[in-house]
């Protein structure tokens, strides 16, 4: 009987509500305005197949800091509740999911009507409605001058931090703040801030340059990133269980995992030479490709060491929850599956583009993600 009550409460909490609409509308409106008017470095994107380039205003860090400051002032003055998000977590989840579904339907039908021949807006229609809706049919659709792909991923990363901060305030109000919560907050905040500090380099990532904008990306950005990546914190019964007080050994171990992430991930992800070549669409000769392989080999013998760094970071988010339940480890397990799938698709794309050069690179760098294992 108790499980039925719990299930009923869960289903009721998951129902979309008009109460969540003002929160989402205000958030998206702020991002649209701040992203358009706040100062930021204008970064040219990777050259598209038709030789055109999109340009991105990289002011995400300023937008995020200003938003947190405004919310802090608003909470202090009683205009907004600091726990508004945590109080409506499941309701916001379902409302955001519904919004993502509706947005991607609009993207699909508007894309089908596009007559553009340019790489950004040219529709790629397979004829399979589900496939085209899921993967998208336009590379970089815009709305009122806003690049929607860049906008949605920025919203997802900021939303993740806002959810974390709201749950933090809830734990402070309830008197349940623990070292595990503090560690988790620090790890996530560091990662998110690092993302926006280096936002310029994100304009050459796989999602931005290769994936079309469909439900897969919109749902991933607006729902999966903020709501799934914060699952460790949302499941307070696990995150507070293992670490009432941490031993020095546990603290050292967690710091080691976090530091290992940045040594591996940032070294590869922000390889300035590789990023410059990609941004400027430089076609590598065999000799140049081989030379770059040796540069990459300095950081290891895996072609996607940055994925390993991301996996280590995801693990550091979950370790504070202990091992009493598998649920807090959903994020790193999911990420492992996602990155293996992405790595396989990336390998196929590079093999088609670079052909024998890529084959030579694979001989020099034999491992995919984890050296000597995979």
Descriptive account of the structure:
The protein has about 375 residues and is mainly α. About 65% of the residues lie in helices and about 5% in strands. It is built from 18 helices and 4 strands. It has helices spanning about 1-15, 20-35, 60-75, 85, 90-110, 130-135, 150-175, 180-195, 205-210, 215-230, 230-235, 235-240, 250-270, 270-280, 285-295, 305-320, 330-355, 355-365, and strands at about 40-45, 55-60, 140-145, 145. The protein has a two-stranded antiparallel sheet with strand order 1-2. A two-stranded antiparallel ribbon has the order 3-4. A hairpin with a 2-residue loop joins strand 3 and strand 4. The protein is globular, with a radius of gyration of 22 Å. About 30% of the residues are buried. Belongs to the ERG4/ERG24 family. InterPro entries: ERG24_DHCR-like (IPR001171), Sterol_reductase_CS (IPR018083). One of its GO terms (cellular component) is endoplasmic reticulum membrane.
- General shape: globular
Write down the oligomeric state. single chain
Strand content: under 5%
Q: Average the pLDDT over all residues and give the rounded result.
A: 77
Rg over CA atoms, rounded to whole Å, is 22 Å
Number of DSSP-assigned strands: 4
Helix content: 55-70%
Q: What low-confidence regions span 5 or more consecutive residues with pLDDT below 50?
A: 1-5, 237-244, 267-279, 282-300
Q: Helical segment tally?
A: 18
GO cellular component, one term: endoplasmic reticulum membrane
Family: Belongs to the ERG4/ERG24 family.
Keywords: Lipid biosynthesis, Lipid metabolism, Membrane, Oxidoreductase, Steroid biosynthesis, Steroid metabolism, Sterol biosynthesis, Sterol metabolism, Transmembrane, Transmembrane helix
Transmembrane segments: 20-40, 61-80, 92-110, 151-169, 181-197, 284-302, 322-341
